[in-house]
Amino acid sequence: MNNVFVFLFLFVTLVDIGYGTQRILRSWLNHGCGTICKDKNLTTVYLRADGQNDTLHYLWDFDGNPSVLLALTSQSASMNISWEDFLLKKKNSITFTEEPVYTFGVVFNKIIEFNDTNDTALINIANLLNTNILHPMFFQWDRKTLIQNNEFVTLNMEGNSYNDSIMNISRDGSIKFSLMGFCSLDHSEVMPHMLHTENSTQVDIILDHLQTNKSFSNSRFAIELLVVGEGNPEIPMFINPKKSLDDEHTPGIFEVVEVRTPPYKSMDNYETQGAYLQWRPISYTTMSRNVINSTETMQYPPIKVSNHTSAVANSMLYCYYGDKVDTLLTQRIIVSLGTKGDGFYKRTYYSTWTFLIGYGTPPDEQFSYLVIMIISIGLGLPLIILLGVGLYLCIYKLPKRSGQAYLNQ
Ligand SMILES: *[C@@H]1O[C@H](CO)[C@@H](O)[C@H](O)[C@H]1NC(C)=O
Ligand SMILES: *[C@@H]1O[C@H](CO)[C@@H](O)[C@H](O)[C@H]1NC(C)=O
Ligand SMILES: *[C@@H]1O[C@H](CO)[C@@H](O)[C@H](O)[C@H]1NC(C)=O
Ligand SMILES: *[C@@H]1O[C@H](CO)[C@@H](O)[C@H](O)[C@H]1NC(C)=O
Ligand SMILES: *[C@@H]1O[C@H](CO)[C@@H](O)[C@H](O)[C@H]1NC(C)=O
Ligand SMILES: *[C@@H]1O[C@H](CO)[C@@H](O)[C@H](O)[C@H]1NC(C)=O
Ligand SMILES: *[C@@H]1O[C@H](CO)[C@@H](O)[C@H](O)[C@H]1NC(C)=O
Ligand SMILES: *[C@@H]1O[C@H](CO)[C@@H](O)[C@H](O)[C@H]1NC(C)=O
Ligand SMILES: *[C@@H]1O[C@H](CO)[C@@H](O)[C@H](O)[C@H]1NC(C)=O
Ligand SMILES: *[C@@H]1O[C@H](CO)[C@@H](O)[C@H](O)[C@H]1NC(C)=O
Ligand SMILES: *[C@@H]1O[C@H](CO)[C@@H](O)[C@H](O)[C@H]1NC(C)=O
Fold it and tell me: For this UniProt entry, which segments traverse the membrane (predicted)?
């Protein structure tokens, strides 16, 4: 039996070494901006992930609606921000020294509150009387922590004091927004322990004691993302809920939802050369993230945007794409938090949603080594016993059986 363990451990170490693909992370806060950004308490993190042959650039920005830009270039390219124009949200204030091979952008566009009259947990955005829209740019965003090293980068932001100066609506409560960049394939430390690759960023959103509309007794929240990418604007992004193999890392959840950009160059490469969003359909309802205190998330078909330019105007994406966005894929993706009979948002006044933004192939959960080991032992032990018994029978019982053979005929 000891030999079996030695073999398994050897196998595990070998596979671990095989996890070669890594990127080296380097990151900067308000890179090259100086005092104007300090005075404005700006948070714009530039993250460079250098691989063997290429570089992924990320920009995480909290001026306007929070947004993430991802760009793939050769290793020699660099990003250049003209800060004065950038702060005025002028187009082309973000440039690269060479044309990126691929770019993708995500805006945290809206928080939609809805009165779930019949407890279906499904939002009807056409029903304006039953919905309220909050714009994340009206929160006051404060930087809580920024951890930077070569293996991961974590930025924790908190939005408070919501004040929509146009509609004159203010709300109590906060939104916690965490962004994480990684250098290799691994599971993230916080529940739901998403599996990420070296090409993905994790976004974690917490709606913490957000004040609900007094006239909505069955309040729930939904989050709307605006996605901009290369691709045919006429083809909707693919939403694909898949069953996953095991729930070892995310107890109780056997599903992953994937959203992928449609093909943009040829049908052959869209599986490896596009972008994706990925999440587990779970929302935790208390700070201690466990399956007992959780509910589900619901996804909807992507929605086309009629005026691309005005859709991105309040975010950093306009600073990069400018009017070019008109010819790009621009769609809205809505995810609502909660499921039938969970007592609505008011039960705990706490909801989370965690998702990945990535380039390339979305990671697939494999059976973990622990599970492989358990299966090996579970199958191996009975097999060894069976073999032993079989051998024993062959050697000691066969002569007798041949003597009785006629009885069985
Ligand atoms: C910047 O942050 C500091 C500390 O959080 C705060 O005192 C100051 O008022 C902020 N300034 C602006 C312009 O928001
Ligand atoms: C890097 O590029 C070279 C040649 O273009 C190729 O042979 C190699 O497989 C690439 N390596 C990776 C990790 O993509
Ligand atoms: C960055 O952009 C500014 C203004 O567009 C330009 O003057 C400067 O040369 C650029 N820097 C690099 C390194 O390209
Ligand atoms: C919200 O839903 C509840 C439950 O059905 C209902 O009593 C209430 O009138 C609704 N509020 C609005 C503004 O429609
Ligand atoms: C709730 O259910 C009632 C009765 O089935 C229906 O008339 C009403 O339109 C539903 N309300 C919503 C908001 O779906
Ligand atoms: C509550 O909802 C109603 C109806 O949609 C809306 O008129 C009102 O402004 C909302 N109040 C707040 C505080 O959002
Ligand atoms: C919201 O903003 C408006 C306009 O800037 C201001 O007059 C109002 O006092 C603010 N409300 C709160 C609650 O801060
Ligand atoms: C904004 O709303 C507050 C209370 O909600 C009210 O006291 C104030 O007069 C309003 N301001 C404007 C400009 O309508
Ligand atoms: C989680 O749910 C259980 C059962 O509903 C409850 O007893 C417990 O207090 C909850 N935990 C937290 C941290 O709220
Ligand atoms: C889109 O919106 C922008 C600004 O909001 C406007 O200037 C432009 O004319 C609009 N384009 C179309 C096609 O409606
Ligand atoms: C990560 O991106 C690189 C860059 O092109 C690509 O070659 C690689 O296959 C991607 N990795 C995954 C797991 O998608």
Answer: 367-395
